[in-house]
Amino acid sequence: MPLPSTPSGPDQYQGPSPVDGAAPLSHDAAPSADAPRTAAPLVDPTVLADMVRDFSDPAVVHRFARDFSATLEGKLERLERGIEAGDATGAEDAVLSVTTSAMMVGAVRLNQAARAVHGMITADDLDGARRAVAPLRACAADTLGELRAGYPENPEPSTVPV
Question: What is the DSSP secondary structure assignment for residue 42, as one 8-state letter?
Fold first, then answer.
């Protein structure tokens, strides 16, 4: 059973992308319509925890998460501009920037949603990519909320997660 390239519904960005470069599911492996879907976590805390272990100062990880949060809107705007202008190369560059930075900060669902948009762009489906930007933005907002909860703007040294 083929999977649609743009799932419908408010939880569109929660599942794995059918166009993320992975091989299609076999008929036996396809989820049934009545099987519950479990969403990937918004943020994988082990990614940031690993970074904390890699640096002697946990504030470095805080700054990294804060910088990701501060630059995400600009990346999404650049993606939208590229799509609206019909510039597949510019849109692809922007969406790859989102996927890369999302992966680095552990933003699992955002990475999945951006990879789905990337698949649409590379398949020359800019209309599909245009429609997928709203769920991508919703996922980005949820991700930023979770990151800000874990990494507040002016943390006390004891509140930086370890």
Answer: S
Instruction: Determine the residue type at 104.
Output: M
pTM > 0.85: yes or no:
no
75 Cβ contact partners less than 8 Å away, ≥ 6 residues apart: 94, 97, 98, 101
**Cβ 19 vs Cβ 116: under 8 Å:** yes
15 in a domain, yes or no? no
CB 78 within 8 A of CB 114: no
**Residue range 109-155, pLDDT digits in tens:** 999 999 999 999 999 999 999 999 999 999 999 999 999 887 655 44
Tokens linked to 2: 């083929």
CATH of residue 125: 1.20.120
Q: What is the DSSP letter of 27?
A: G
Residue 80 has pLDDT above 70, yes or no: yes
